[in-house]
């Protein structure tokens, strides 16, 4: 499959600073940035910075960042689903996963996540993909935000909706293990019908759940 990476950028004014939201950012360009030490949601910052650089090197990989004077304070990643995940079965070339989105606590009140997703979808080529994200409550910073599980879920839905993602039903065991977990999806307008049907089969492996 052919890949397109159309660079887009915008300024986001916040009470703290004026951020630059941009991407997709190449691995080479990422080397000129510092990765904020509070980006710790998934692994230690230095390890996560290496991980997003590796994603940026992938043909399909996309990294969108928000930065404050060359310091990355937020990012979102897009790539094919992990080979060990349910969503990689069948190797659907039209299926892309929003693998991670993270913003440092200092900037979480200023719509940085929404802006990251809006910049991501400004690339028309994203309409060739089904974009998915799997939201699990155990990844959420409930302690740091003081939000309940359901309040945090509502926040995540609003953020993802800024990128055109909506909640889709599934019988995936991990998602079904807690009612706050969810699958959110954006189906691009150029995705072939057979690719959508293949995705529906992945969503519901138990035919009785349709």
Features:
210 residues; nine-stranded mixed β-sheet; globular; Acyl_CoA_acyltransferase; acetoin dehydrogenase (NAD+) activity; AcuA; acyltransferase activity, transferring groups other than amino-acyl groups
Quick summary of this structure?
With 210 residues, the protein is of the alpha+beta class.
CATH homology-level superfamily: Gcn5-related N-acetyltransferase (GNAT)
CATH topology: Aminopeptidase
The structure class reads alpha+beta
Number of strands: 9
Largest sheet: 9 strands, mixed
Task: Look at the structure and give the CATH class.
Answer: Alpha Beta
Helix count?
Answer: 7
- Give the termini separation: 30 Å
Q: Estimate what percentage of residues fall within beta strands.
A: 25-35%
Percent in helix: 25-40%
> Would you identify the regions where 5 or more consecutive residues have pLDDT less than 50?
none
Mean pLDDT: 93
CATH architecture grouping: 3-Layer(aba) Sandwich
> SSE string, helix = H, strand = E?
EEHEHEEEHEHHEHEH
Total number of domains? 1
Radius of gyration: 17 Å
What's the overall geometry? globular
GO molecular function: acetoin dehydrogenase (NAD+) activity; acyltransferase activity, transferring groups other than amino-acyl groups
Protein name: Acetoin utilization protein AcuA
Organism: Scopulibacillus darangshiensis
Domain N-acetyltransferase: 38-118
């Amino acid at each position: 499959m052919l890949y397109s990476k159309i660079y887009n950028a915008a300024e986001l004014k916040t009470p703290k600073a004026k951020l630059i939201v941009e991407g997709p950012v190449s691995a080479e360009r990422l080397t000129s940035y510092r990765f904020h030490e509070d980006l710790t949601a998934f692994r230690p910052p230095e390890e996560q910075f290496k991980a997003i650089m590796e994603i940026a090197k992938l043909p399909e990989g996309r990294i969108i960042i928000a930065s404050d004077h060359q310091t990355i304070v937020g990012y979102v990643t897009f790539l094919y689903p992990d080979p060990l995940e349910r969503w990689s079965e069948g190797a659907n070339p039209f299926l892309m996963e929003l693998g991670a989105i993270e913003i440092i606590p200092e900037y979480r009140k200023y719509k940085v996540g929404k802006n990251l997703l809006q910049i991501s979808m400004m690339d028309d080529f994203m309409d060739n993909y089904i974009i998915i994200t799997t939201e699990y409550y155990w990844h959420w910073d409930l302690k740091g935000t003081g939000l309940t599980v359901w309040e945090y879920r509502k926040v995540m839905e609003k953020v993802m909706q800024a990128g055109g993602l909506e909640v889709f039903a599934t019988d995936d065991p991990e998602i079904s293990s807690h009612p706050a977990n969810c699958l959110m999806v954006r189906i691009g307008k150029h995705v072939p019908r057979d690719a959508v049907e293949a995705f529906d089969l992945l969503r519901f492996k138990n035919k009785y759940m349709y």
